[in-house]
Amino acid sequence: MRGIGKRLLAGVCLLALAACGQPAAERKQTASGPAGGTLKAVRDRGYVNCGASTGTVGFGAPDSHGYWRGLDIETCRAVAAAVLGDKDKARFVPLTGQQRLTALQSGEIDILPRTTTWTLSRDANGVNFTLPNYYDYDGIMVRRDRGVTNSRELDGASVCVQTGSTTEVTFTNLMASVAPNLKAVIFDSTQATRQAFFSGRCDALITDASGLASVRATMASNPDDFIIFPADGKLSPLTPAVRHGDDQWFDIVKWSFQALLMAEELGIDQANVDEMRQSQDPTIRRFLGVEPGNGAALGLDEEWTYRIVKQLGNYGEMFDRNVGAGSPLKLDRGPNRLFRDGGLMVPMAFN
Ligand SMILES: N[C@@H](CCC(=O)N[C@@H](CS)C(=O)NCC(=O)O)C(=O)O
To answer: Closest Cα partner for 266 from 315, 219, 322?
Structure first.
């Protein structure tokens, strides 16, 4: 942990840009997937290795029994259900912001579904982003009694910032645009950053707004004492990633998530999926593999979508129980609604 004075900020911000955009450790890495491809390796091993966060309730954290839960966790469990027939054939490796992309490139994990924003430098350096599983934005949390409601009014405040995250870039941009006198207090770990904020070490905490909602719901003694506002009004699509160089695995991960969206679009949920298999609607029959073809195209059996929905439900159900109305976070669906409902989630055709 180190506080930094204004004079040092220019240098720190340059370092920050290097760290979040294209960390040196990542830059030199080339993707090293298993011989024979990831699908074969996962089948031989019997479980999927998933990169997880170090603990963000709603997105990825173990419960009191050590069972991993969250939207990102279930994104990975959907792949396990599709490929191995069982959502629980997945293991979770907690990774810091700094470690996550290297762990994917080196083959330690098969999928990185961990609150990771899709950016050009990451995409061009060894990983492929699939499709966003949560449209987020960078947020700032302050105590309500400070009376600050936007980034401009925050100028002069100290802000807890975590390394290895795109939030560092957002912080730098804020200084260059609306709040030149912000002071960064930088930490390497998520937990240290959060604790520093709650112990009064900084006036504000900057990170994904979803992460802030999670932290406020789980760490604040009185959540109403804190407000969250957008840092800069830009969207930050959190997107699961895979290694470069394995198109089949890339497709499987992408379409396992698409299956959750399409199930919602077609009105198929965990409770009615068995009944839906009797449907005469050709779109539903093709989606659920009653009419074969989609499974074979991906190198899977024809029941992969059925298993995903039977074991996890559709995206709406998954959103609700992890981060929405049925969870402590109570996040609004917002841009994460289906396109037909005014959101950005577009179910692609299963034909
Ligand atoms: N979306 C941003 C930030 C993501 C991120 O890793 N944020 C940290 C800081 S709060 C976090 O959520 N960590 C989750 C955890 O370790 O549990 C990025 O891709 O860089």
So the answer is: 315
User: From the alpha carbon of 238, which atom of ligand 1 is closest?
Assistant: 1
Report d(CA 312, CA 221) in Å as an integer: 32
Q: What is the whole-number distance in angstroms between the Cα of residue 58 and the centre of ligand 1?
A: 13
The pLDDT tens digits of the residues spanning 177-200 come to 999 999 999 999 999 999 999 999
Task: State the distance from the centre of ligand 1 to the C-alpha of 20, rounded, in angstroms.
Answer: 11
Calculate how far, in angstroms, residue 208's C-alpha sits from the geometric centre of ligand 1: 7
CATH T-level topology, domain 2-20+138-236: D-Maltodextrin-Binding Protein; domain 2 (3.40.190)
Per the CB < 8 A criterion, the answer to whether 30 and 186 are in contact is no
Tell which one of 134, 163, 208 to mutate to probe ligand 1, the residue whose CB is within 8 A of the most ligand atoms.
208
Question: 24-134+239-243 in CATH: which number?
Answer: 3.40.190.10
**Residue-range domain boundaries for the chain:** 2-20+138-236, 24-134+239-243, 247-341
Answer yes or no: is pLDDT of 15 > 80. Answer: no
Query: What are phi and psi for residue 199, nearest 5 degrees?
Result: -90, 5
**For residue range 275-293, what is the model confidence (pLDDT) as tens digits?**
999 999 999 999 999 999 9
